[in-house]
Amino acid sequence: MMTATRPFKRVLDRLQGAGLRPTRQRLGLARLLFEGCDRHVTAEQLHGEALSADLRVSLATVYNTLNQFTDAGLLREVVVEAGKSYFDTNTSDHHHFFLENTGRLEDIPGDHLAIRNLPAAPAGTRIARVDVIVRLVEDGE
């Protein structure tokens, strides 16, 4: 088997470390997602980036891959409203600002917000995580 070239090594290791087989589509999408700084992306945005990068994948494949990456802990899904999700490459404990008029999502560091007095979880369950989305509109809107 041919070894990965240096540009692919980091994402290849990341996929294999998460227990995912590095298919051509997964590797190509992982490069788009993880090479560079943390970001928030919709499936449609990533699909457009993939096509621009000559990575021929269907939108359904992009959705499936994003969900597989999320299930493997490589991404975090942020649902801003029914039918509108962003996938976040930053999986650390943090929250978000959502600019409603532009659809932009920005990180709020986890230590910048204190969550207090949470209700007790129902019997047989536990709180896994608390996600806060602070919705913003620009002045004049």
Automatic annotation (TrEMBL):
GO terms for molecular function: DNA-binding transcription factor activity; transcription cis-regulatory region binding; zinc ion binding. Gene3D superfamilies: Winged helix-like DNA-binding domain superfamily/Winged helix DNA-binding domain. It holds the Pfam family FUR. It is found in: Cytoplasm. The keyword Cytoplasm applies. The keyword Signal does not apply. Keywords: Cytoplasm, DNA-binding, Iron, Metal-binding, Repressor, Transcription, Transcription regulation, Zinc. GO terms for biological process: negative regulation of DNA-templated transcription; regulation of secondary metabolite biosynthetic process. One of its GO terms (cellular component) is cytoplasm. InterPro entries: FUR, WH-like_DNA-bd_sf, WH_DNA-bd_sf. Homodimer. Belongs to the Fur family. This is Ferric uptake regulation protein. It comes from Azospirillum doebereinerae. The gene is fur.
